[in-house]
Design goal:
Arc Repressor Mutant, subunit A; homodimer; three-stranded antiparallel beta sheet; alpha+beta; 56% helix; DNA-binding
DNA sequence: ACACTATATTGATCGATGTCAATATCTTTC
DNA sequence: GAAAGATATTGACATCGATCAATATAGTGT
């Protein structure tokens, strides 16, 4: 966790990001996109992959995109999704333990 | 994210852990405990800190403890919470980007 | 313009959950 | 064991969210 207590605003933002990751279907969508060799996946394949209806998958992709976790690009009829490069790393950092100095120096 | 797509079971487990972190009050509780010099906090102080009723704070602490994020220790009348050492690091790893070899070698 | 396919939106339903008041349980102290 | 304080549980309520069927929108080709 962070070195200092989170403010209400910081906590609200982080919670919103975490909320996007707090669903099995969304995690599987994200991992499927990330696991593709070229790092991108078409929405159409994702519908088959997670075993949910097309509207439901569309909804989850919108949530992931809204949380900044997936990038969206339309190519003709199809929409391709890519894992946003920095967003996941940012969340990782937010979960990082406090620097050792915090406890040692007090 | 991980190198291979998550299975349904893996996704369900990860989602449950993320869910525990997907609430502003719980994040603030966790960060307050982590930010204490000795790494632990009494439940009584946490009630004041997050501005929620005592039952609500108790509920959130139970969720965090149930998710393995907080350790619980009773000392007399008071209950002290400590951030579980490995749990947060595990979640960090779960969010880690796939190893570079995954994309380069294909 | 029309048909066809892919994706998004709407509306409805049902279960999950954050919250608090009231109450219960646990622990120390007298 | 009674009293007091800390923590946990229960019950109720309101809101949120995952889901799907139905429909709408967007883009491609004829």
């Amino acid at each position: 966790m962070c070195d200092a207590p989170l403010s209400e605003a910081e906590a609200t933002d982080l919670a919103a990001a975490m909320h996007a990751l707090a669903d099995p279907v969304r995690l599987r969508l994200l991992s499927h996109v990330a696991a593709r060799p070229n790092g991108e996946a078409c929405a159409c394949e994702l519908v088959d992959v997670v075993g949910r209806s097309q509207p439901t998958v569309s909804h989850h992709l919108k949530v992931l995109h809204g949380a900044g976790l997936l990038e969206r690009e339309r190519r003709g009829t199809w929409v391709w999704y890519r894992v946003a490069p920095t967003r996941l790393a940012d969340l990782q950092n937010a979960l990082a333990p406090p620097p050792p100095t915090t406890r040692e120096t007090l």
